[in-house]
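User: Show me a protein chain along with its predicted structure.
Assistant: Here is one chain, sequence first, then structure tokens.
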Amino acid sequence: METRYLRTLVVTIEAGSFSRAAEILHLTQSAISQRVKTLEERYGYQLFDRSGSSLALTEPGRLVMEKAKTILKVEQELLEGLKSFSGLKQLSLCCTPTFGSAYLPSVLDRFMRQNTDIDDLKFLFHQPLQALKGLKQGEFDLAVLEHWDGLDFSDFQTVDLPLDELVVVAAPRLNLPDEEVEVDELVELLLYARRDGCSSKELLRKNLDTQGKQIGDFSRVVITDDLRWTLDNVREGNCIAFMSRSLAQAELTTGALQALHVKGFDHFRQRTVIIHPQHAEDPLIQSFLQSVHAIFEKSPPQLTVLSGG
């Protein structure tokens, strides 16, 4: 049995739905269903209880799930061990879409010029929780995340980066007050928001909650992960968005958009490099950190080992 089928089972139950698993694994929902069916035919038992409205494992399904996690962990340890025999210079990293869009191109340009002999470089965009899961499973060597307070980094080593400022971006033609605005002036507008799991949406939800509001109070809400499309629509003047200032910096500089603070809002989130402890001393990791440091123009980052790591 190929481990990709077992991985599909694990991802499906952790994601909570076949559709979400398909999104995470970049497969169709029918492909996810077929892989689960293959497992059920292979082991001779129904793995999911299909009688209820929510996704749940049967007793045999729980056993297969438990053993699948063990097998996948052993496989990852095997792959990590084999890397030492290859002699190849490899780096696998993950970042949130904001860092990936605003900073990663410059970081990679500097990093690649300093490491022209690297054999294999992989990078993917993920939301914070999915990135942490990939780190724990050994899929990535490091991740750069914008995130909310309270995430558990105790199994990793970390480097703190400058905070990320989030602002409400709007076209000047909306005639909103300069710099600071009341939330009641915004809920009458169309809001472009990220999907659940994005820290900008979590911070927006938290801010609205402190003022007795919720995202559903906006006149209309569009959920999208396409940051460029969001900026294009905001620039047209028919909506607003709560996003990192870094993403809209070009439009803010030219005056095509304005950045607003909302009275009573927290406008900052954390930004951290999280490193798998097995790779903390890797020269490629250190080179990548120096490239990040150069982009942020800050003092050389200090590696922090959290308790429990």
